[in-house]
Amino acid sequence: MTGSETVVVEAVVAVPDDQGCLCCGQVLPERSGVRGGPRLRYCPEGQGMWDGAGFSCKRHGAAVVAYRAARGEESSEDPLAVLDRELLRMRQVLEPVAEVMAETAAAVGEQREVVRREAERIGAAEARAEEARRALEVAEQARDEAQAQAASDRERADAAERRRREADERADAAVEAAAAAERRAATAEQARQDAVVAAQDAVKTREAALARVASLTDAVAAANREREADRAEVAAAQAHLREAQAAERAARVAAAEAADERDRLTADTTRLQDELAARTTDNTRLTHELARLSATTARLTSDNARLGDEVARLATDHAAAAARLDSATATLATTEAALATLREQHTAARVEVGVLRRLAAVVPADATGHPGVRQVFTLLTGGADAHADLVARLREQPEEDPADIVMMFLRDHDLVTGEDVVRRIFELTGHNLTPDVLARRVLVEVAAGGTDD
User: Where is the segment annotated Disordered (predicted)?
Assistant: First the structure.
């Protein structure tokens, strides 16, 4: 068969009934409307195992079949199976990392919860310590005030005792003054009695001397003068007696007042002594409370130090967990980067397949007879003339789309200058060229070694 001949094969290759889809292997339904006819070769649109995201068995099954044929019918090398295997491998790699990350996150969460609870306990302990310190300060202030008040009460009691002693001394002096007044009053009374006796004697003398009045006028006058003097002395004695009685009454009043003052001072002293005893009891109680608060403060300080050590240990554990988390995160990032690279490679492969399908779609079935096309095939296959191979493949697969056969043929070989073909197709797409002219022009330009318009 020459290069100018057109290969037209109308024979149909029958597929066994028990054979599934050539792409994904699913069982195919019977052809609708064809009684007893062969089954479909590919899954209907949208029913394939891998249909979705722009892929379907019906539209891309031929490319998958050609790929398998080029790789020696090894299903494990199926592009989709390879992708599934890589995804499975990545999942197997990432699942332990995810589990470790989950465990690490849980451990970190637990450690953070422990740290939070310990921080709350430390805060509560510090609050209790602060409250105890304040209570201790209040107790010390109350103790100081009680001691100051006790000292003041003692001073007041001492002053009251001094005033009581002074009152006793004044009362004793008043009693002595009253006794002296009584003695003076007794003396005055004796003088009055003596004066009365003297007056009686004078009267007797006057009566005795009445007979001698004439002769004894001078004696009578003298006696009268003596009587007047005695009367004056009696009056003076009576006045002195009245003064002594007034002094006695004043002394008695002063003694009563001194006794009242002494009783009041005694009552004040008793009350102050009772208050001093109560303050002493309060001081003792506050001293015990101070000792208890001091012990509580020491215990809280010890608990605070222990909790500080525990927080430091938890912080160290948290740092270690954070380091493990960072390591796991770095591993995950590396794995994700590798997965992203695989995804990019898969996306690039899909784009390349799409571009090659676009190239194959614009290459007519008889393009293989063009000498430029044959030269391109020679260049694309590394110098081997693949024209006969392509013609044989077209003859062997008459039921397939020739564009798919050409596309898969290009995929079966290492495309040395495939990028030039792809670039040139995109450059010439906007020139409103027919598919036949576009394909011939691209192939001829690539075969000639140039890509100028």
Answer: 139-172
